[in-house]
Automatic annotation (TrEMBL), chains A, B:
Belongs to the group II decarboxylase family. One of its GO terms (cellular component) is cytoplasm. The lineage of its organism: Bacteria, Pseudomonadati, Thermodesulfobacteriota, Desulfobacteria, Desulfobacterales. PANTHER family: CYSTEINE SULFINIC ACID DECARBOXYLASE, GLUTAMATE DECARBOXYLASE-RELATED. GO terms for molecular function: carboxy-lyase activity; pyridoxal phosphate binding. One of its GO terms (biological process) is carboxylic acid metabolic process. It comes from uncultured Desulfobacterium sp. Keywords: Decarboxylase, Lyase, Pyridoxal phosphate. InterPro entries: PyrdxlP-dep_de-COase (IPR002129), PyrdxlP-dep_Trfase (IPR015424), PyrdxlP-dep_Trfase_major (IPR015421), PyrdxlP-dep_Trfase_small (IPR015422). The modification N6-(pyridoxal phosphate)lysine is found at K343. SUPFAM superfamilies: PLP-dependent transferases. Its cofactor is pyridoxal 5'-phosphate. It comes from the Bacteria. This is Putative pyridoxal-dependent aspartate 1-decarboxylase.
Amino acid sequence: MNNNKPKEIKSNLEYLRKLFIMPDSPDKFIEFGHDLLEMIHEFFQEKGGIHSAITLPELSDIFDQTAVPARPKLIKDVLSEIKDKIVRHSVKVGSPYYIGHMTSAIPYFMILMEMIIAALNQNQVKIESAKASSFVEREIVAWLHRLIFNKGDKYYEKNIQNHRVALGNVTSDGTLANLTALLVAREKAFAPDGDFPGLRMAGMERALRHYGYSKAVILVSKRGHYSITKSANLLGLGEENVISIAVDNDNRMDLMKLRNKIKDLQKKDGKRKIKIVSIIGIAGTTETGSVDNLLEMADIAHEAGAHFHVDACWGGSAMLVDEYRHLFTGIEQADSVTIDAHKLLYCPMSMGAVLFQDERDLRYIRHSSQYVIRRNSVDTGRFTIEGSRPFSCLKPWASLKIIGKEGFGLLFKQAQRSTDDLKMILDNCGNFETLNNPQLFILIYRFIPGAAKNQLEIWKKDKSKDSERKIRKVNNLINGLNIKLHKALRRDDTSFVSRTTMESTPYRPQKIVVLRAVLINPLTNRPILEEIVSTQNRIGMKIWKEFKPVFYRISDCNIQDPDIMGAAPYPV
Amino acid sequence: MNNNKPKEIKSNLEYLRKLFIMPDSPDKFIEFGHDLLEMIHEFFQEKGGIHSAITLPELSDIFDQTAVPARPKLIKDVLSEIKDKIVRHSVKVGSPYYIGHMTSAIPYFMILMEMIIAALNQNQVKIESAKASSFVEREIVAWLHRLIFNKGDKYYEKNIQNHRVALGNVTSDGTLANLTALLVAREKAFAPDGDFPGLRMAGMERALRHYGYSKAVILVSKRGHYSITKSANLLGLGEENVISIAVDNDNRMDLMKLRNKIKDLQKKDGKRKIKIVSIIGIAGTTETGSVDNLLEMADIAHEAGAHFHVDACWGGSAMLVDEYRHLFTGIEQADSVTIDAHKLLYCPMSMGAVLFQDERDLRYIRHSSQYVIRRNSVDTGRFTIEGSRPFSCLKPWASLKIIGKEGFGLLFKQAQRSTDDLKMILDNCGNFETLNNPQLFILIYRFIPGAAKNQLEIWKKDKSKDSERKIRKVNNLINGLNIKLHKALRRDDTSFVSRTTMESTPYRPQKIVVLRAVLINPLTNRPILEEIVSTQNRIGMKIWKEFKPVFYRISDCNIQDPDIMGAAPYPV
């Protein structure tokens, strides 16, 4: 025992121990909690300053402590540090003016759920550290499974709490959910066979050799989420072996192109064949919200002997509401489907889920260890990629109860109304061009002043080589304009839309810079949308002044003018 | 517009909208929060019933709703459902009597942090949805990096907020952290080279072919966490290619065996060589808390041209305290290190981190997409396996400030004291055998009544073949006894230790069933430990009655008795 200041050490340990017990009179704690909520409430109520005016270099100076603090601080001091340094400079993702990403407002009861999750601190990996919560997880997994595959009462009564199988996994996010689906698909494609113990044991190289394949590929449309290439990297398939299929005018996979590509792949590559591990349908693309033709894709995939995976991370929750179900026809024939709770289930960051039509599929990746998740245990961790996991599923479990199918119906109706409103406001303005028929609350468009827009229309009708060349030049110019506008909007910071580049607009194959709005915040309304468009129009017209002279030179000249070609200094 | 009951629909939407706004007078919310915390507080204060008495089939009956609820419920009704069905039947992982897993009590201010994280709902993937929080993340990543690699002020001043590089990633847990490290290691081993675009683009098979290897392996001790084999599966290396190196008597990798294995691997396998992708050191094994000889391993790994990874998910945080640093000597020579916040940083489930010595290493897996994490952006998501991620790092960031290095010093001293106390109590009892010299708060032991223990000692000295055989038989018997005891303890449920099976006890290579205690809850004290041991002894002695006759038959007989061989009906 150390004799230096034992009194002080002892009293400090007592202080620390007290931190681990909810105070017997929790007034102080409640007071903190109250202040915190007030503070965050006020922060979100402030108008404007979506991203806070502070610059990134200024933030770098605030968070510049390069070593762990030595001396302890009081909780209240750290809380006010959080208030001054962090809350003030956070992004108001819950603001009705923040319509640029899938991150949105959440119902306030979610904060209560997070309190419960943290206070219980269950670890979902294992029944010994997660009892009721393991059953809650199986219950919500069954709900989601049924929503997609709808196999009937008997099936769910049998499997909902059957620990020998897993209808799916709760994951940390959609990327992990897609990765899980593709891991299973890969193992099914290279399953144990005679002496060959399966890819999972033997590795990619021996698997290809055993089955006589030259390589293994995944097919997804050009709208595929980047988690698919990430998965191909992780799984040792190689990003090159994600084959991107062009989309039609509605941003759905072009099935003719898919069929041709499959025929192509089925020809032998030298001496060996190519294995199609998975064909992936998208139910709500990240950029445009579009849903692939899942029904036909299911047939094509199964005919090609591929695992049919549907990435419904964005749109899947819309199946809760009858009037959206038709979009998803065929999804019940998927082998696996992924869905995110932090998107259209309005949960806080982050929770994904992957569901398998065949409840035995997750056995392909089942694992065990001596000290946790023993072979014959009931532990959820046998089937998951992640190890330790929080009780995140409480959030959608509660929100599905509190909001209910009916409530989600109303929320989605409101989201649809906002989407329609925004499209109408933009179309009526005259200085914008909307570029998709939004299916699931995502609208892409660009700023293009009336004069330029009309000129493009004229050239489009004309169809001469010269007009085509001019259209390309003007589009390059408008691309630059929209990049500049987006940057100016970020500086203005009273609202937020995102920006991307698309090859599948009416100007295809030219890449077009577009603004992107995701309209799911139920607090967003028509006046707010009008305000946002008016700001974009005002700032856009101001920037247009610099671009206008170049536009008129393009419009007037017939020959290729090197100066004009150089007039789009914004690489896209 | 639908004319059916528009009033009702409108009012419902209004109700839903209100859910998304913190109530202007948040009394109701505060009241809920208060009740919740009281409820969870009471739950944890209850003595006994660690896992609740409810059986798994009974829980199956509670959570048996096979479809999403149609009608919404009131928040207060769902909260009381949570109270009755979930909280009551959760595992009291925060109880000082729960000493079986790494999941433990957390300081109550963590609940405040979770409230902030949920209310802000930042998405760490991208600066557009996470502003200050991206900088907080880089700051704590720098703290952890410095704790391990300690590169000096200039290095951290330069890199802490340098968005062109990443010192490491925050991940959802230790498994994802280890996976990230091994993904980087794999890519470094098969980096782009001339026409070859790197494994990530080309896949495993082409990578091996290009570099002329027959396979790629990972070396880790028999104490390696199961996330390593999981990673080998995911990465397409194959679980078979995780080579398990035996440990010494202190559960540290046997370096002689490692050297021999490397020599073996460096011989050509037919025409082609074998690539050692990574050699993994463990700094705090899951089963015994042991730390490998990292200094020597670093040399061996680098000489073998392998990425040296250290899995410090369990122990890494102990480096915060000077008196533990010597255990980790050599860790600063690792290429990557993983560490978990939900273990010795006392954060709620779950957050891991991976740190790379070379701040450029994460570039091997950098990715981008058009609509998020553009190539030249400052977005954290460029480097991570996960996509959407919560602002989890606020929790360790705050706890390192509130508890501070000093506070962690006291917490670990208390954990050490509990570990020493438990060892002493067990050794003094006479009916237990402790089986490791605990380094980081994990003790393994078994119940073995004095008579059997003494007899084993006598046989051990004797060293005859016959005695060896008898030792094996008695150990089989005691294995069965400890499995039965562990099950009985689970039924008693006044305390909790875990159970595993080890090949590296003094009885090696025989596999021995052991009980495992993890002693990090600062509320656990000596009287509690005495109570736990006394319960184990009482129940153990009761079970021993069934086993005793067999033990005496083994002790008295010299010949191999088939009945006795059959006396260990508990396969291990």
